[in-house]
Amino acid sequence: MTMLKLSRLIGIIAGAVLAVATPVLAAPMAFVTSSFTGDVSVIDTTTKEKVATIPVGGSPFGVAVHPAGSHVYVANWGDDTVSVISTATNSVVRTIPVGDGPFGVAVHPAGTHVYVANQLADTVSVIDTATGTAAPTPIGVGSRPVGVVVNPAGTRLYVVNQWSFTVSVIDTTSNTLVDTVGVGGMPVGIAVAPNGSRVYVTNASAHRVSVIDTATNTVVTTVAVGSSPFGIAVHPSGSHVYVGNGSGTVSVIDAATNTVVASPFAASGLLGVGVTPSGTHVYAASEDANAVFVLATSTNTVTDRIEVDSGPAAFGIFIASHAVCETEALEAALAACQGELATSMTRISQLEAENATLASDYARLSNQQGGLVRALVSVLFGDRPDAAVTEAVRDATGAELAVARGAAPQDPRLRQAQRAFDTGQASMLAQDWTGAMSSFRNVYTLTRQIQAEVSVRGRKMGR
User: Fewer CB atoms near the end CB (10 Å): N or C, the chain?
Assistant: First the structure.
């Protein structure tokens, strides 16, 4: 954008700000991450139409809206950052480095802090929203943390540990672990009741939802739902809980009786689930259909389908809790435009430096690890699997996955490879060595394909 155009745009927006005599409330928006395309789709929940697309980082997955509705925080699993979106301008205003493999994200009810589950580092990063920086020492939790949620009082943070089959309970004042709650197999999603008395956890491999009493930090019951439950959300009244199942249904749980009262079908591969502030509609993102499905809570039926970009996840609280004042939005847009030029130039310089670093890291990793890892895997995959052999293969394929992630962080096949790796690890916990070897073989095949394609592209660019 030229300085002349920028000046005109600032003038136009300034005039619009002055022209709005009476503040008008805009509709709550839904912010849906698309993990394959690296962006966020913005959906108007009144018209049920996609109104904007915001580029963010690599493989965005988790998302959380600030309680004031002013900002949206997106966890970019592929490049270990959190993108901060201004809802006034629908643009990224800050990018914050966090731990390895950020997955789930949650905002403190007071809006003071953001909590990010670093799946590949077994930690939670704590971001100060005033400074936009993460604390130097993250919180250690269980193995492979994914879902996170803060209770309405803001006193407790609950973290789902996928491989530990637990939920870590964190004191938000001291950022220390105060309890650990055992749940079902391969837990993923988490949600808290509006009164804070219950926490609900989806268990993907157990096909159930664990219900935790927050007064005692114990599981008081489990509810059988659909196959491979993932995302979960609670109605604003606390009356019902909604679960997105990989098999394509949305399980509707009566919170008073902990029973499933409806299971409408939307589409396979349901991930994130959210409820509008009014409680009238549920939004469920389908990774397989590349769409968001809207359900009416009065009838528990699908009423709308909204097309979005590839690989929608919407994992977390992705619908604004209330509308944003248009006057405030325009004022914020004016401020954002004034700094747009300087921010863009800085970002270009950062991207050039990051690209150079990635190329260097890939060359180094390939030279140091590539030959050794390929030799090890080729030998071990032919052996009769046992604990020692399977562990060696896991480590070898993990190294290959790291090389592929460094070479092509936004390649959609990385998600498939990571899932296969997680499945292999789960099989190891069950001492199913043959099953684990099969999963790791899939990881190896995918990562070698990615590395080979990167190598071919590199040679072509060198010509």
Answer: C
